[in-house]
């Protein structure tokens, strides 16, 4: 039987040709096919694709524009009744400003109801509670009515205030952050608390600070 001899320098190239190519720095798609589903505060009404960078490229940048001890940028936004509400309205009393991803999502509903259930404690501390998301006034109105929320919900359509305050996003920037600020009577930030996955902890932390002021 005849034998075929190959030069030694050919073997590495032949072996390399059989190796499967693996993407090193491509985006890995996650497909959500269920209609009207909720995922950690994001609403999906139709089939959609969420691209998450691979570990070789994924980086999270948190730029906190508002820090403890600072006076945050003022704003004027519409509430659930379509009325303009300014941050300066609350000066002279402590105010809890909490940013949340969206109305009617599981975590945000749990957080809003926890603020509702402890609302008398906030009043006793002399504090106002204000929730902010990118939903419109009609969405806020329905949300507040359904869960009997006694506090103000403001509409940050376009997320301008969220950006001005530097609220960090989660899941590689795809999920609006859940962050709470406590301002004292002078409008100075005394607490910044961020916890996306334990929404009820925001109430415990803010009350703990307010009761110590």
Description:
With 213 residues, the chain is of the alpha+beta class. The chain has a domain at 76-211: 3-Layer(aba) Sandwich (Glutaredoxin), CATH 3.40.30. 25% of the residues lie in helices and 24% in strands. It contains six helices and eleven strands. The protein has helices spanning 11-18, 106-117, 119-124, 137-147, 160-165, 201-210; strands at residues 27-32, 37-39, 42-44, 48-53, 76-79, 84-86, 95-99, 128-133, 152-155, 179-183, 189-194. A seven-stranded mixed sheet has the order 6-5-9-8-7-10-11. A hairpin with a 4-residue loop joins strand 5 and strand 6 (84-86). The longest helix has 12 residues, at 106-117. The chain starts with 10 loop residues before the first helix and ends with a helix. Residues 6-39 and 44-63 have low confidence and may be disordered.
Summarize the structure.
By secondary structure, this protein is of the alpha+beta class. 25% of the residues lie in helices and 24% in strands.
Which descriptors apply to this entry?
213 residues, globular, 7-stranded mixed sheet, 25% helix, Glutaredoxin, two-stranded antiparallel sheet, 6 helices, alpha+beta
CATH class of the domain at 76-211: Alpha Beta
Oligomeric nature of the chains: single chain
CATH topology term of the domain at 76-211: Glutaredoxin
Distance between the termini: 94 Å
Shape: globular
Structural class: alpha+beta
Mean of residue pLDDT values: 80
Low-confidence stretches: 6-39, 44-63
Q: Strand fraction band?
A: 15-25%
